[in-house]
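pinging the channel bc i need a second pair of eyes. not urgent but kinda urgent?? the chain im working w is below, pasted from the shared doc
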Amino acid sequence: MSPATDVATGSVSGSVTGSASPPAAESGLPRPDLGRLHEVTAALAARAPEYDRTGAFPHESLQLVHDAGLLTAGVDPRYGGPGGSFTDITRILLALGRGDPSVALIAGMTIVPHLLHPRSPWPEELYRRVLAESALRPTLLNHARAEPEMGSSTRGPLPATTARRTADGWSLTGHKRYVTGSEGLSYFLVWAATDEPEPRVGNFIVPAGTPGIEILPTWHQLGMRATGSNEVVFTDVEIPADHVHELAPPGAAPAPGVLPGSVTLLLSSALYLGVARAAQSAVHTYAHERVPAALGHSLAGTGRYKRGAGEIETLLSSAEQLIFGVAGQVDRGEPVRGVDALASKVIVVRHVTSAVETGLRLLGNPGLARENPLERHFRDIQSAGVHAPGEDAVLPLVGATALAAEAPDA
């Protein structure tokens, strides 16, 4: 079995790697234990149906994730954190996704910036303040990038959101959409362009509660209903001068050591793999429990279900290998091309989506019943394909790279 499958079945042992520096307990950060991920998964899964039904923000579940030390599992040891590896974080996202993917998505948006901090650091004083708050309560972070006029930031030119210099810092004005976790965030990382003669772009770190922030309750989706991915309007929101991250001219090359964003997007796909693993379990449970009178034994003993189960496992195990393969490359310090990570993301999304659809075809009408968890998993997995960047944006990039490699003048 792969490490991811072990997590999904609750048989992981050991804790997050990286303990040479002061342990998380000394910094006040809760200490994660990956050996208990299955308990977190089960607790999230118990609450997930109600959050899905109401669309309410999952405060209790995120408190549980915080208490388990998972929100700060990627904090570097130099800051008193456990120093979780990319493989560790991928295991965590898979386990959370299996329990409640809405919670996993919100949590992942916080976990990944901590994981990337050594490669792309925040202003030192501000980051230490975030960690101090994180020791006391869930301190949620997320980027605010997409805009109504241009959609995903992977497609558009300069953001319409503008950062204007003031005597004390910056003033932000703009309209963002799909801001996951909006109503529970502690900090918004707002992608904006400066109003300078030669504009720069970057993430402006805005504490929640700053005057001028308005959350519009616009998230009413088929699946992932508890993510609170609402629209947010920023009107003359003032922040200190040092609350800026990665401010640079448009199109500037990333700083040395900074990973392509596509790598973290692939790792985040682990939560959708978790959804598919949960759907797989629902199919297996039904197959074992359903004993048609005319058959005389469970559906699990039929050739049709064995074949279907084999197809599902083949799809999911290969998706695991892709995700954890990239995570392992990063942990070993091996270079990862962004285009390769994007291509892997396409395959992962296709596989997890196909696996859930295969399970639904096996069950037929019972799989679409609201009391069957497969119905919710089917709705949630639909978000995997529209999670930017989508295939229509990725495949031309992958294809252009492949064609260029064998061009006559290459």
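so Residues 3-120 form a domain with the Butyryl-Coa Dehydrogenase, subunit A; domain 1 fold (CATH 1.10.540.10). and The chain has three domains: 3-120, 143-248, 261-403. — does that match what u expected or am i reading it wrong
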